[in-house]
UniProtKB/TrEMBL annotation, chains A, B:
The keyword Isomerase applies. It comes from the Bacteria. This is peptidylprolyl isomerase. It comes from Asticcacaulis benevestitus DSM 16100 = ATCC BAA-896. Residues 61-241 form the PPIase cyclophilin-type domain.
Length: 299, 299
């Protein structure tokens, strides 16, 4: 049982599950989990119900995702319209490529019309900061500066900013450059952050619940993880905006405010792991290993 | 179909599948796939059969992994002994934690004895370089220098070196520090590289085939992704050293030699994507987005 308990330790620190608190850990510095547990309610921001999408799959599992309305407003408006018009109801997970992406929408041979959207939105790959930039004090291979704006992972070259393709982030599949996608096919990252996609596709959201019901699917056997035929595709039975559900049925997600003191302490704790398990602390953390903590609002 | 083809492009570049070659791509610079296709046989190194383990799961799927014998020889000797003594035959996948690790071996309540191993191996978390260090010319959040030694991802602080917890790398589960694990429970990374584990656990290998048969499993419902009970665990029916199989049955994997010109060209192409799909090239690549290409030896 010891081995299980102690492996529990490291994993909990990464995924924000319950971490066993050790004498040594308490004696040195707070663990990321201890920081979360001590954070005041004011450090958590509610995910707005009009930015929250609940997708129900054929096996009854539910995947919830938050739209990045402050960063890609035209694409987000398209996605809200597609959801409300029922475009995704009866669509499918059409592609699962290991270490890369899960993609859903209408397969290319499905001629369902997307009604009422902007078919050729602006790229929205880069933007002027819509809020304070909370930079990480660590190096990044791809950008001069990385950090968070309104609790979203952002990179910057000092002139422009862009959302980062971290695990669980959602982007809009598109045709050949320079046109962007309309939002009829979406993908989420299921491997090491494919940062080469940054600024090449519109990043429009992130999975906030049920990610494991996208990642546990059989990988597609066709080129690039597309499923061979419709019988292999996992059907999406319904997709709803949380704001269109009765109050009692709306999941209440909260994201830690990246401008809060608690968030700064949490990032520091992620970069400097302590406790009995750790022989060495890294002293740094990669932007995609510091995703803003997300939780269901305590009752 | 266009959307499928063009998304194919980006994914192929990441995972080394077949990439559609565009006029523009050809006109500018070789894509990573073009570099691989053009690489001479001399750029590829055979995975030694005594470093290659083939694990067969209850559903008939096979996962192959390469042992890092040049970096963690005592742990690797333990793993070979555990494989040859049948320790893993009838063991299970005991833990699948989304975005983190898949772990296999004997569950903690299984008292099967591990015979003939070094029960307390040295940590082997760091080492003097056993070969030339081919550094990446890009920044890294965690280390002064990252690159490859003998086609393995390595970080260095100028004094010591260590293997990096990239996607698909295999480590040895252990109890509380400072003792290391014996090799009776192994894990592989299935999310964004958890670099905070570097130098805290012994990294002993990497998955070279069948990774998708580990990642497509239901996530465990207990704390940290452990399965609740044995009925949920995926059984390992057999684990064999390739060197103990008849020649005809040995999978012939090859890894691109990180000291080859082809590898340097491939890393450059990964950092500077071209072709019709890309609006912008990142101009850099993270160490865990530049894993040495692996293939089955052409017949």
């Amino acid at each position: 049982m010891i081995k299980r308990l102690l492996l529990t330790g490291t994993a909990a620190l990464l995924l924000m599950g319950a971490a066993p608190i050790t004498q040594q850990g308490s004696a040195t510095q707070a663990s990321p989990q201890e920081v979360l547990d001590a954070a005041p309610a004011s450090a958590w921001t509610d995910v707005q119900s009009d930015d929250l999408v609940i997708m129900t799959l054929a096996d009854g599992s539910k995947v919830s995702y938050q739209l990045a309305s402050a960063f890609a407003p035209v694409h987000v408006a398209n996605i809200r319209q597609l959801v409300r018009s029922g475009y995704f109801d009866g669509a499918s997970i059409i592609r699962v490529q290991d270490a890369y992406v899960v993609q859903w929408g209408r397969a290319d041979d499905d001629k369902t019309e997307a009604k009422g959207i902007n078919a050729t939105p602006p790229a929205e790959y880069e933007f002027a900061a819509p809020g304070a930039f909370k930079a990480l004090p660590y190096r990044d291979a791809y950008a001069e500066k990385v950090g968070h704006i309104k609790s979203w992972p952002v990179a910057s070259d000092g002139k422009t900013n862009w959302l980062i393709h971290c695990y669980g982030m959602i982007g809009v599949a598109r045709d050949v450059a320079p046109d962007t996608g309309s939002g009829t096919q979406l993908y989420t990252v299921i491997g090491h952050a494919p940062r080469h996609l940054d600024r090449n596709l519109a990043v429009v959201g992130r999975v906030v619940g049920g990610m494991e019901f996208l990642t546990n699917r059989p990988r597609g056997t066709e080129e690039l993880g597309f499923y061979k035929d419709d019988s292999q595709r996992i059907r999406i039975v319904s997709t709803k905006m949380a704001s269109d559900l009765p109050m009692a049925e709306r999941p209440a997600y909260q994201v830690m405010d990246s401008d809060s003191q608690s968030f700064s302490a949490w990032v520091k704790a992620r970069a400097n792991r302590s406790g009995a398990f750790f022989v060495r602390s890294a002293g740094a953390v990669d932007i995609c290993n510091a995703p803003a903590p997300i939780r269901l609002k305590p009752m």
